[in-house]
Amino acid sequence: MLATLSSSLGLAPIAPVHAPRTGARAALRMGTAADDMGIPCEGDCAITYSKLPDSVKPGVVTGQALQDLLDYAKSEGFAIPAVNCISSSSVNYCLEAARANDAPIMIQFSSGGSQFYAGKGLDNTDYRAAIAGAVSGAYHVRAMAEQYGIPVILHTDHCAKKLLPWMDGMLDASERYFEVHGEPLFSSHMLDLSEEPMDENVDICVNYLERMAKMDMLLEMELGITGGEEDGVNNEDVNPEDLYTKPEEVWQVYEALSKVPNGRFTVAAAFGNVHGVYAPGNVRLDPEILGNSQIYIADKLGMDKGTQPVNFVFHGGSGSDINDIKKAITYGVIKMNIDTDTQWAYWKGIRDFEAQYRDYLQTQIGNPEGAEKPNKKYYDPREAMRAGEKSTVDRLQQCFEDLNCVGVLGLQAPEVNNVLGPRRGGLPV
Ligand SMILES: [Zn+2]
């Protein structure tokens, strides 16, 4: 599709992903992917944000604009929710929630979420489906983010060593995108080599950051282990000591990654956090680790007291004590991952919908209003999915509030003129 579009615009055809690169910067065009798709920015897309750095515009934010947004979050004392998405439905509720809360958002895909985006019926040999699904999801985000008028950071979640071919495929796609648009397809990726020895973790991160920095892309790396279970990775029985990072380790990473020219990075340092929600008392968070690391590194760099050189990332935020979340933000956390709580919210919306309309959902024809009454308007999957979306938008409001991330953009409340619904005789939407 892109090749056709570019040739119709009189541009050189784009090389196939695996062809040798020609460095065809002559084809560089700063139009967005949404422009290419024929849905150029109108209305809300012309927004500028009175409160944010000038570089931050509606749509997917990369490079210096991304750095400016993260630095602004740290200086203003808020963190951006990073929500794991698995479908266009989940991308859309993220965009809806961000606009409703007048805030930026991070949309991220795990390897499993990427594969699901492509469809579980598709062969995933060599992570082909996971690569295609992530790229497909990225284009959906790029198509829609501007339409909602909000800045979106497009990211991917944990990538362990065995998943590096997935990362390579996504980077191929971003390099191809960079040749045309002068920016990467994704804003950033996470590498999680925390199960490998420390030196190997750092070496692989430096290697990848060198490739990513050429496209002005940001790397999130993990130090120490996030406990619990997520996306099929089970860390429920790890050595408790590994759940707490040491300031010296953060410094080792900071020093190595800072040496990469144009290297931008964030650090997911473990401070007792776990994926999933567990009974109270089973999780002991120690956000002081982040504060102590900032002090340690600022001192190494000879910076003023109180300077926070590191942008930290909070994994396993679901179910955390609000005081620990707020404290972590004061220590330089600029992003908190959200998955378990939105999973539950989506399911709860569907569950409540089913409970409310159970008698209308058992057969195609026949309900309490009559034996011949049709039930199509109840079992239309859009009804249950929309119930899940609305429930999740509500839940995300609490996340934005917890992270001090409300009213960040300075936009008016959106006017939603939903002309296609509710349909006549349909259920309230
Ligand atoms: Zn995580």
Question: What tags apply to this protein structure?
Answer:
single chain, 429 residues, alpha/beta, TIM Barrel, nine-stranded parallel beta sheet, three-stranded mixed beta sheet, 14 helices, 41% helix, globular, binds zinc ion
List the helices and strands and how they pair.
Blueprint: H1 2-8, H2 33-36, E1 59-60, H3 63-76, E2 80-84, H4 88-100, E3 105-109, H5 111-118, H6 128-148, E4 151-156, H7 164-181, E5 188-191, H8 198-213, E6 218-223, E7 227-230, E8 233-235, H9 247-258, E9 264-269, E10 274-275, H10 288-300, E11 312-314, H11 322-330, E12 333-338, H12 340-356, E13 365-367, E14 370-374, H13 376-379, H14 381-402
Parallel strand pairs: 1-4, 2-3, 2-12, 3-4, 4-5, 5-6, 6-9, 7-10, 11-12
Antiparallel strand pairs: 7-8, 13-14
Helix pairs in contact: 4-6, 4-14, 5-6, 6-7, 8-9, 9-10, 12-14
The protein binds zinc ion.
